[in-house]
Amino acid sequence: NFRCRSAFKLLEIDDKFRLLQPGCSVVDCGAAPGAWSQVAVQRVNSDGTDTELPRGTVVGIDLLNIPPLEGAHFLSSHNVLDPATHAKLLELLPNGQAHIILSDMAPNASGFRDMDHEKLITLCLALIDLAAKILQPGGSLVCKYWDGILTHKLQEKLSSAFGSVRTLKPNASRKDSAERYFLARMYKKPIK
Ligand code: SAM
């Protein structure tokens, strides 16, 4: 049983693209109440259910409380944008590196479509900075956004940091909503 219907969006994306492999390290941004993390724990085997397969790592972050989940390490009451959160991630991840960054983050919707769109794009852009700190070369990023005038800006930034970027609209996402996901793969580590 999943904590939230949003699990089906990630299941759909992962069934198609097979991002979450046993042994992978995953950071789940905006993880509360924890449904995406449930999917990630199962697929990367971070609870060690399958003793034959490598054991992965799942770290979830949210401003809100995330009820405990076996196989996941949760940073409740943490802001993904806060450098202190980044420091904790570096400690929790094996070798300080993630294979996959997931983000289903969403700001509290004001109801003003453009404003909500811009806020969420700002959050997504911050994930590119987070990637520079913790994402392995070749790694992937899945991030939710609300479509709007700044979508192309986010897409461009993702395209310069990743070898492949595509737009996804899972069937489990309401047809009439502006919700979309970017799947960015083959992360290119920026040269320092
Ligand atoms: N994927 C989750 C699941 O399956 O259970 C649902 C995520 S919910 C749609 C979006 C979450 O993003 C909210 O819980 C919200 O608190 C969180 N969020 C928004 N901005 C954030 C930020 N700056 N840092 C951490 N979490 C944030």
Q: Overview of this structure, please?
A:
There is one protein chain. By secondary structure, the protein is of the alpha/beta class. The chain has one domain (7-187): Rossmann fold (3-Layer(aba) Sandwich), CATH 3.40.50.150. Helix content is 33%, strand content 25%. It has helices at residues 7-17, 35-44, 83-92, 113-134, 151-161; strands at 25-29, 57-61, 72-75, 98-103, 135-146, 162-168, 179-187. A seven-stranded mixed β-sheet has the order 3-2-1-4-5-7-6, with helices on both faces. Helix 4 links the parallel strand 4 (98-103) and strand 5. Helix 4 runs parallel beside helix 5. The longest helix is centred in the middle third of the chain and has 22 residues, at 113-134. The model has no long low-confidence stretch (mean pLDDT 97). The structure holds S-adenosylmethionine. S-adenosylmethionine (SAM) is lined by residues 3-4, 6-7, 30-36, 61-64, 79-81, 104-107, 123.
Shape-level CATH architecture: 3-Layer(aba) Sandwich
Number of domains: 1
Question: Which distinct ligands sit in these coordinates?
Answer: S-adenosylmethionine
Count of DSSP strands: 7
Question: In terms of structural class, how would the helical and strand content be classed?
Answer: alpha/beta
Calculate the terminal CA-CA distance, rounded to whole Å: 44 Å
Strand order of the largest sheet: 3-2-1-4-5-7-6
